[in-house]
Amino acid sequence: MISMPETAAPKIDRTDRPIGWGHAVLKVRDLLRSELFYTEVIGFRVVGRRTGMTFLSLGGTHHDLALYEAGPRAQMPGTGSLGVVHLAFAMEDESALRRFYAFLKGKATILGAVNRVVFRSFYIADPDGYIIEFFADAPMGEWSNIPNPFDRELPYNPGGTPLDDEEEEFP
């Protein structure tokens, strides 16, 4: 069992901490190109604009994502640089994940897929090279008795059937 280090910070009352994730802001090279990708390919809707920015929502809040135009010469951080590894978007269930994967084939660059035991996911790249993950949680009964399920992963083929994936075993 992995032990988690204690922090030096005093424990705070549960009501005095964040209650969830708010939104992300991505710097993009071409605002219109990115807006079209996130609305027409991913399914966001535009909820607002201001000079150099577009605000997008999936429907549950005022905005989930904002795009900030950094200009055509903007560079992504290189290997070894700090920064965001990827953004992850939850799907309703694995069937929705598989259908969305089929929808995205040919519309986005699919980078790979994995069964992380606690969830299944696949990854794409947006027009600026940001990595976007789409995931569906696995039923808790599949992993709740596995010591540290975060240390395991299996191959995953979202374009196949669930039976295709069941043939795989833990390495």
The CATH topology of the largest domain is: Signal recognition particle alu RNA binding heterodimer, srp9/1
Count of helix runs: 3
Indicate the mean pLDDT. 88
Radius of gyration: 19 Å
Q: In which range does the helix fraction lie? A: 10-25%
Under the CATH scheme, which architecture of the largest domain would be assigned? 2-Layer Sandwich
Q: What count of structural domains?
A: 2
Write up this protein.
The protein is α/β, with parallel strands linked by helices. The protein has 2 domains: about 25-70, 2,3-Dihydroxybiphenyl 1,2-Dioxygenase, domain 1, CATH 3.10.180; about 85-170, Signal recognition particle alu RNA binding heterodimer, srp9/1 (2-Layer Sandwich). Helices cover about 15% and strands about 25% of the residues. The protein contains 3 helices and 8 strands, in the order E-H-E-E-E-E-H-E-E-E-H. The strands form 2 sheets. Strands 1-4-3-2 form a 4-stranded mixed sheet, with helices on one face. A 4-stranded mixed sheet has the order 5-8-7-6, covered by helices on one side. Strand 3 and strand 4 form a beta hairpin. The radius of gyration is 19 Å and the shape is globular. The two termini are about 20 Å apart. Residues about 165-170 have low confidence and may be disordered.
Defining traits:
single chain; 171 residues; alpha/beta; 2,3-Dihydroxybiphenyl 1,2-Dioxygenase, domain 1; Signal recognition particle alu RNA binding heterodimer, srp9/1; 2 domains; 4-stranded mixed β-sheet; globular; disordered C terminus
